[in-house]
Write a structure and sequence with these properties.
Blueprint lengths: L1 H8 L5 E15 L9 E12 L5 E10 L8 E6 L13 E3 L2 H14 L2 H11 L1 H4 L3 H10 L4 H28 L2
Antiparallel strand pairs: 1-2, 1-4, 2-3, 4-5
Helix pairs in contact: 1-2, 2-6, 3-6
Length: about 180
């Protein structure tokens, strides 16, 4: 999902154009159930016009924006063409920016952080036998100095490298 959205923000899917803000309204989104701090997000309505002039929508909207934009501001945007198998993952209109690309690709790599746990469970046999948290900890300790530990930590390291280095680099390189 994040990868598809990142590619949309990079302009690989949909139609590139300009989104002119009509108005923005704030709504609060708590990004973590453990956080008491609420981060504002904005839903904006406006006018979308593709660069080739073939697609025009006077009732366009974008949601989940992190910045409040004043009326009349023109933003680079990507409009959904409705021709993709991934349409349900792509919003109708999305900002095309380095930040949006980076954020979505970081989310994609972040979701992959589940993989080292799955690899450990598979390689250690925990997936078949299960166990309590204490038993899983003991199995982890038992992998010290083994290939299992090396494979799990290397997998986690590669994925973290993707989050911290590759995502921002791709955000810069792929920005329209």
């Amino acid at each position: 999902m994040f990868t598809v959205r990142g590619l949309a923000a990079a302009g690989f899917t949909g139609t590139h154009g300009t989104f002119t803000i009509k108005e923005c309204e704030q709504h609060h989104n708590t990004s973590s159930r453990h956080s008491t701090k609420s981060f504002p997000e904005y839903d904006c309505t406006g006018h979308f016009r593709s660069d080739d002039g073939k697609s025009v929508n006077n009732d366009a909207s974008m949601s989940g924006l992190e910045t409040h934009y004043s009326a009349g501001i023109r933003l680079p945007a990507q409009g959904d063409t409705g021709n993709s198998a991934f349409d349900f993952l792509i919003p109708d209109y999305a900002l095309t920016s380095t930040g949006q690309i980076t954020k979505n690709l970081m989310g994609a790599f972040g979701c992959l952080l589940l993989v080292p746990f799955l690899v450990f469970y598979w390689l250690s046999g925990t997936a078949e036998t299960g166990g309590t948290v204490r038993q899983v900890r003991e199995r982890w300790r038992a992998t010290a100095g083994t290939r299992t530990r090396t494979i799990v930590l290397t997998t986690a390291g590669v994925i973290l490298f993707g989050v911290v280095i590759v995502s921002p680099a791709l955000g810069i390189v792929l920005a329209p």
